[in-house]
Amino acid sequence: MEILAFGVQSDEKPLMEKAFEGHHEVRCLDVFLNEDTAPIAAGYEIVSSSVNASLDNRVLQTLAAGGTQMIAQRSTGFNNIDLEVAERLGLTVARVASYSPYSVAEFAWTLAMAVNRRIVRASTRTRDFDFRLDGLMGRDLRGRTAGVLGTGKIGEAFTRIAHGFGMNLLGWDIAENPACAALGMKYVEKERLFAEADLISLHVPLLPETEHLVDSTALRTMKDDAILVNSSRGGLIDTKALVSELREGRFTGVGLDVYEAEAGLFFVDRSLDAVEDDILARLVTFPNVLVTSHQAYYTVDAVSQIIETTVRNVLDYQAGRRSENVLVPALPRT
Residue ranges of the D-isomer specific 2-hydroxyacid dehydrogenase catalytic domain (predicted)? Predict the structure, then answer.
């Protein structure tokens, strides 16, 4: 059987082909799965999608009509998939429930340190042989307060690094993580976390109840010199409200690896295109803002784990097995 994989990056392709070797052939496409590309999947029983795929009603209808029976998403998040429609159409949907939490946690810290110590600005200057220090002053993090929203595996990894820096720890989640509590984390209401934290990092999934978790009220509650980092999902932040606060000269730095309207933008070259997204265009002009293109997970360790899990999901589907990765189970075979 040949598997059709959408949205495969060039670095990812050899890992994908090697992982499927001995099991199935895999056809890797660099285009993302959406309404325009879904017809390509006609005749493929199993399709693999990436995090920036758009699997809404129309796309799922097209896949089902073309004979697709299983979707193996190569990500933890699944807010881009209409699961109710998939279930109605009899499509099996699986994801990657977990992979290296260190990849994302370490990158979140990379963003935090980069905006705190003005690394991008400093690098740009030195390339022009400008070695002045004006405007590059950062802050020690030791003794300051880190606020972590979402203390699962990634949030815990982030917290351990914060503890290593000697920071005070505040956390917010639906359930306390004993490992974080053992490090001295104090769980508080999110309003208090927003008000007291010097560094705020987001590690919660994007759900209806967490959409715009960081809204205009939360942003106004934060310290004027706070650092805000988001390496989870773009929809957690009301970006329009964030731009308004940045225009007032607030925040030491903002590091964003995700953006709420990133679909169709991230993972592709738009350098020669007219910028149609006014909010993103304004966002990247602020000198205290660093935007990267959803690359926090992008280490050989994490990507290898994601692909290996995807292969297992395909094999489990064929064997009629169900694991924690299955979001919509297979219909009984007749």
Answer: 8-327
166 is a domain residue: yes
Residue with more model confidence, 266 or 198: 198
Helix axes 101-116, 153-164, angle to 10 degrees: 50
Instruction: State the DSSP string of 24-79.
Output: -EEEE-SSPPSTTTGGGGTT-SEEEE-TT--B-HHHHHHHHHTT--EEEESSS--T
CB 180 within 8 Å of CB 149: no
CB atoms under 10 Å from CB of 323, counted, come to: 12
Cβ atoms within 10 A of the Cβ of 120, count?
13
Count of structural domains, the chain: 2
**Distance from C-alpha of 227 to C-alpha of 211, rounded to nearest angstrom:** 20
pLDDT digits (tens, 9 = 90+) for 194-221: 999 999 999 999 999 999 999 999 999 9
Lowest mean pLDDT among 15-24, 134-143, 212-221, 325-334: 325-334
Same domain, 130 and 24: no
Burial class of residue 11 (count of CB atoms within 10 Å of its CB; 0-12, 13-18, 19+):
exposed
Instruction: Quote the pLDDT of residue 269.
Output: 86
User: In this predicted structure, what is the pLDDT of residue 270?
Assistant: 86
User: Whose structure tokens read 């589907």?
Assistant: 317
CATH of the domain at 51: 3.40.50.720
pLDDT at 334 over 70: no
Give φ, ψ of 150 to 5 degrees. 100, 105
Report the predicted TM-score, pTM, of the whole model to 2 decimal places: 0.90
| Residue 333 belongs to some domain of the structure | no
Q: Note whether 281 and 141 are same-domain residues.
A: yes
At residue 333, the pLDDT reads: 46
Q: Within this chain, do residues 22 and 106 fall inside the same structural domain, yes or no? A: no
Residue 234: give the domain boundaries: 101-291
Provide the token pair at 250: 């607030």
- The bridge status of strand 186-187 relative to strand 253-256 is unpaired
Active-site positions read 233, 262, 294
* CA–CA distance, 123 with 129 (Å, rounded to integer): 10
205 found inside a domain: yes
Q: Which of 209, 206, 227 is nearest to 77 (CA)?
A: 206
Indicate whether 334 belongs to any domain: no
